[in-house]
Amino acid sequence: MIRTKGEGGKVMRRKDIEQALTGWYEISSSTVSKTVQSMSRQLGLVKIYEDPLSAREKIVSLTEKGEQLLAQMERNGAALMGWMMETMSKEEVLQGINFLKHVSEIFEKFPGVDEIIKRGQEAQPK
Q1: Is residue 52 part of a domain?
Q2: d(CA 117, CA 126)
Q3: Is residue 74 part of a domain?
Q4: Lowest CB count within 10 Å: 24, 39, 81, 106, which one?
Q5: What is the CATH number of the domain that holds 42?
Q6: For residue 75, is pLDDT > 80?
Q7: Could you give the CA distance from residue 112 to residue 55 in angstroms, rounded to a whole number?
Q8: Are 11 and 98 in contact (CB under 8 A)?
């Protein structure tokens, strides 16, 4: 998430991480906070420090180890995609790309799990 939503792909406010993840998944902000702390203290993948503009807010940044792991994950993903695409025709690859573009556009408009559940409840016959 830091890579795609963070400043320069390396830094993001902890509050923004918590809001994004609790909006997508049914987890608490304390679970996200504990996970981020574990990624810092035990794994050394991120660094947590106070926001210079607000002592109450924390900033999360990737460490060199975190950046290396992310880069390796990206390389592994690209290799896997390349291998899969080698088994497909050009038409199948283009269909897959179009499908993923459409899914991406839909997710850009995603209102969050709570809103989807609320809409589903409102649509239920009484």
Answers
A1: yes
A2: 16
A3: no
A4: 106
A5: 1.10.10.10
A6: yes
A7: 29
A8: no
Which one of 32, 48, 65 terminates a domain? 65
Residues paired with 46 in a beta bridge: 62
The pTM (predicted TM-score) of the whole model is: 0.68
Query: Which residue type sits at 111?
Result: P
Q: How many CA atoms lie within 13 Å of 11's alpha carbon, on the beta-carbon side?
A: 8
Q: How confident is the model at residue 101 (pLDDT cuts 50, 70, 90)?
A: very high
- 60, 74, 49, 46: which is closest to 18 by C-alpha? 60
Domain limits at 46?
2-65
- CA-nearest of 14, 10, 20, 13 to 68 is 10
Asked if the structure places residue 80 within a domain, the reply is no
Single out the residue in 13, 48, 65 at which a domain terminates: 65
Cα distances from 96 to residues 10, 85, 89, 91, 105, in angstroms, run 29, 10, 11, 9, 14
Distance from C-alpha of 27 to C-alpha of 20, rounded to nearest angstrom: 11
